[in-house]
Structure formats: structure tokens, C-alpha cells
Amino acid sequence: MSCTRRRFFRVVGGTAASGVCASWLPPQLASAWNPQDVSADIQLGLVTYLWGKDWDLPTLIANCEKAGIRGVELRTEHAHGVEPEISADRRREVRRMFAESSVVLVGLGSNERFDHPDPEALRRAIERTKAFVKLSYDCGGTGVKVKPDRFHPNVPREKTIEQIGRSLNEVGAFAADYGQQIRLEVHGQCSPLPIIKQIMDIAQHPNVAVCWNSNAEDLAGEGLEYNFRLVKDRLGATVHVRELNLGDYPYQRLMELLVEANYRGWVLLECRTDPPDKVAALIEQRQIWEEMMRKARAKVASAAARS
């Protein structure tokens, strides 16, 4: 057995996966993105930006358990303190804390981006991403979020897009040896989904995936369904959403699209408001999401029965 396969099976225990997210992964990586309980298909989790940014790790885990939130993506530079600089002992402690709880470490949310015109800055971002990959592996996570991210004066867009795609291929190949998925957040000036598709057409490594980010740009051009179809076959383990009951983003339709696509992964709350009781707010968001999912599943099942 190769080093890659040994590491992978230590991380995920060889659990089989199915669904759109795993359809393009090689067999040895097919479940790196998958929720702990595959029978539950889509699950709800939390990105520590912004509601969890001030909670240390024990508080974060305890509050997620109180709210019925099953998974968490740890955004870098927050109070949890899970950063590449922590020691091997601390990494083992982080892994243990999650293993002894009902909360899954879905992965790490880095702030690394691959648009830098300066080659040295780009190399630093790539190497820092690799450090996050090792950290996620050591702590029991299954992936690292990265950004594309913007375009720069006097640099052709096509050159930036190609650079981002090639950088993703490099970190994706590196992460594969650790059973970690690279999750490209739809972010910044690269947020229009046709641009993300251009990037992913270059980033052909099967361990590179799209993290849907519920942006206003999703509705541009030919609309949500068209833009969703552009990347649905490359969706990874994570979908980011904001507060489900605020604004005019069509979250109900997004949930239907995920169900229709047989998505197996995490919908992660990345909330932007500042409620005084964030545990109560998480419970409210979970209840809203559960009702959305009930309606989405019923609608999709009804449509399938009629066809």
C-alpha cells in the first residue's frame, strides 16, 4: 500500500462515499470530503467566521453541541488558535477534542489566495497552503479552503486565471497524499461562476473542488440554475451560506438544487450579523435549515414520482 493510501485510510477509515461530490474523485480519495454519517447526506455546520470567531476551542465545540451543529470549519486567525504554528502535542489535543465530541472537524479555512502577481508572494501562499494541509491532517480534518481571488492592473485576466488553476493543481496533488481536499471558495473578483469554471477547467486535479459561497454573483447572467450547473460536478465537501432568513438570496432553491444533484456534503453557516445570543441564533438557523431541507426533499421526490 502506498504512503498516500496509508495516510488516507488512517484519516477516513476507508468509508465509502457516493454522490455528485465524489463522482470525479479517485477511489482512494472519494470519501475525504464526506460527512461522518453518509446516511444523513447533507449536514449543517458552522464556519467560525463570524459567529464563532471569539470562542476558544472547548467553547466552540460545546456551543455547537448545544445548538445541534454537527460540523465546523475553523477559519484562520480566530480564537480557536488552530494555526500551522501549533506544536505536534497541541495538534493531537485538537484531534482528541473533536474525536471525543459530537462535532466533526470539517476542515480549515485558510486565507491563502493564488492571484499574486509577485512570484515570491505566490510561492509563499502555496507553501502556506501546504502547511494548512498538514495541520488539517494532524487535527483530523478533511480539507482546506483557499481563495482564487482578484485581478490586477497590467496583468491579463487569462494569465491570472491560468496561474490560479496551476497553483490549485500543485496544492491539490500535495493534499492528496494527506487525504485532504482543496476547496476553492467562490470569492472576490473571481466570484462570477463562469470565471470559477475557467479556473477549474485548468485545475483538473481531482482533489481540487469548488466551495459554493452563496454570493450575489450566483444570480447574475443566466441565473442561479445555469451558474450552479457550471460547477455542480466539481462541488466539494462544503457549501457556504449566510443567515438563511435574511436578504433575498434564494436559499430554498439552492437546497433543492443540492438535493437534485444528490449532493453529499456540508452546508456551513458563515453568518455576518452579531446576535447577542449566538447559540440561540444557531439553533434558529438550524431549525430554518431543517425545514428548508424537508421542503426541498419533498419537492424533488414529488417531481421524481411524476416523471
If you had to describe this structure to a student in words, what would you say it looks like?
With 307 residues, this protein is α/β, with parallel strands linked by helices. The chain has 9 helices and 8 strands. It has helices at 3-12, 57-67, 88-99, 119-139, 157-176, 193-202, 224-231, 251-260, 278-306, and strands at 43-47, 71-75, 104-113, 143-147, 181-185, 208-212, 235-241, 266-269. An 8-stranded parallel barrel has the order 1-2-3-4-5-6-7-8, surrounded by 4 helices. Strand 6 (208-212), helix 7 and strand 7 form a beta-alpha-beta unit. The model is unreliable at 1-19 and 22-39 (pLDDT under 50).
Brief summary:
This protein has 307 residues and is of the alpha/beta class.
List keywords for this structure.
single chain; 307 residues; alpha/beta; eight-stranded parallel beta barrel; 43% helix; globular; disordered N terminus
Topology:
Elements: H1 3-12, E1 43-47, H2 57-67, E2 71-75, H3 88-99, E3 104-113, H4 119-139, E4 143-147, H5 157-176, E5 181-185, H6 193-202, E6 208-212, H7 224-231, E7 235-241, H8 251-260, E8 266-269, H9 278-306
Parallel strand pairs: 1-2, 1-8, 2-3, 3-4, 4-5, 5-6, 6-7, 7-8
Helix pairs in contact: 2-9, 4-5, 5-6, 6-7, 8-9
Q: Fill in the CATH topology.
A: TIM Barrel
* Radius of gyration from CA coordinates: 18 Å
Strand content: 5-15%
CATH superfamily label: Divalent-metal-dependent TIM barrel enzymes
Number of separate structural domains: 1
Bin the helical content. 40-55%
Highest CATH level, the class: Alpha Beta
Q: Helix count, per DSSP?
A: 9
What is the spatial order of strands in the main beta sheet?
Answer: 1-2-3-4-5-6-7-8
The profile of the biggest β sheet is: 8 strands, parallel, barrel
Taken in chain order, the helices and strands follow as: HEHEHEHEHEHEHEHEH
In the predicted model, the low-confidence regions spanning at least 5 consecutive residues are 1-19, 22-39
SS elements, strand count: 8
Give the mean pLDDT.
90
Q: Quickly give the structural class.
A: alpha/beta
User: What is the distance, rounded to the nearest whole angstrom, between the alpha carbons of the first and last residues?
Assistant: 45 Å
Morphology: globular
Assigned CATH architecture: Alpha-Beta Barrel
